[in-house]
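Exam review. A common question shows you a sequence with its structure tokens and asks you to describe the fold in words. Practice with the pair below. Do the first one on your own.
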Amino acid sequence: MRKRLSLVVAAGVLAGLTPAIPASAALVTHCIGTGGAVTVPNDLYVPAGESCSLTGTIVTGNVSVAAGGNLVVSGGKFSGDVRIAGNGYFDASDTDVTGPVVLAAGGYGVYLRDAATGAVTVRAKGTTTVDSFLFTEGATVTGSVNVQAGEVRIDKNTSITGGLTSTGTYYTDVHDSFVDGAVSVLNSSTGSVFCGSSIRGKATFAGNLGAVQLGPNGPLDSCASGGFWGKDVSVTSTTGGVTVDDNIIDGVLTATGNTPAAQIADNNRIRRGVVTDPPAAAARSARAAAQPRTDDTAKAEERRTDAVQEAKAAGPADL
């Protein structure tokens, strides 16, 4: 039965996943199975295709999840960074991660619930077949979030101290959350929804193939209120529809080159004015069909459940 943690030299095990680690690095602990409230005094490694489930575990070094591996942690504390390889999965609840969290190209996903981390990065899909995701609920990210693939849902009082950059994702939605820096959502295939959130920096939405919905009463999702935007907001070159409803914008709203023309409700409070297309250009627009949002977090919950069951089947890990 596979159930033990073993110590091996980090240089050989982590060379492909964390190349910045020197050949003289300390030992690394392999995790297959379940672990409790103990301290791992070095790096932690989940081997390819294996599952590790931790509760209350402290890791003083860096954490790596190899291809197809799963790491589920509750009530933990990681002093280093977390790196997840292709088709790997990282699920953290009530856990503090001091360093950044990086999902490699084709990584399965990252789900953060009431967790605190450094900057979060999701690499572009590239030639891989796996569509990644980043889901957060009540998370605190100290740094920026940069996502270049898959599904993005920032929700339930998540706080990002830096900016949010999304390029080429399937969708990027932000609900009831706070971003202290700038927001950029570019070339999303099914668009973007921002509701009930506060954005301190400049916001740019451009080249999105789906709709962009800022506030309630839009085609993609239902929500109770709009948001606060601390600087200029620009929505351009978007197909599928643009709706701006019940927002406070402490800057200029620019909504040009969209097909169809943006619908800007009278209940918005926009401090520095609105820039739109001339009426003749707006009249030539035709509405594209929007795709209403569904709850996609089920895929994360299913992967978490399977990972925990696999870890339990492997038995207690000797931490």
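Now try the second one, then compare your answer with the model answer below.
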Amino acid sequence: MSDEELLAIILRTGTNGEDALSVACHVRELCGQQGLLGLHHLTLDQLMSVRGIGQVKAVKLKAIAELATRIAAARVEKDVCLQTAGAVAEAYMERMRHLEREQTLVVFLDGADHRIGDAVLSEGSLTETQIFIREIYRLALQMNAASIILLHNHPSGNPRPSRQDMLITARLREASDYMEIPLLDHIIIGDNRYYSFREKGEL
């Protein structure tokens, strides 16, 4: 089935002069080049600007987009093995690539590189680096983690690290040496691509 046909099933009904498929086509056009991924970025008002989309249908479409994100997040099982940057990026890509704001997350691993859990450390710009590092290791000790992986997203879609990203990585590596809980990688999530400090030989 096409994207438009799937949307039509969700919408169920159209409006005067247009059936559900026609309304679905207008929604798909509104999503732009991103396709259905664009649903993550459309507001309720934008969806309701489409003739035939009221508040109930707009909320339903946003709920489905959120559900898709949560399904992707649920795929990251607690004991999944994360030995490569590619495995980490694949596990967290759908969860982080659609975020409108920058989010920083730490993954805690056991001695066999199995995921114990993860925690969101910040939303938006990170300003208090020392507090940030202290919180990471407070949680790592609490969870009895053997190692950690840092992730954050770039809403622009370009995962290339900034100067601040490099500074945080260097400081966190120093702290990890002192705490004897290694920083295995710092991975930046972009739009279906990622940057790994470890793969680039920078960690």
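Model answer, second protein: The domain at 78-196 is CATH 3.40.140.10 (Cytidine Deaminase; domain 2). The chain has two domains: 3-73, 78-196. Full marks require stating both points clearly.
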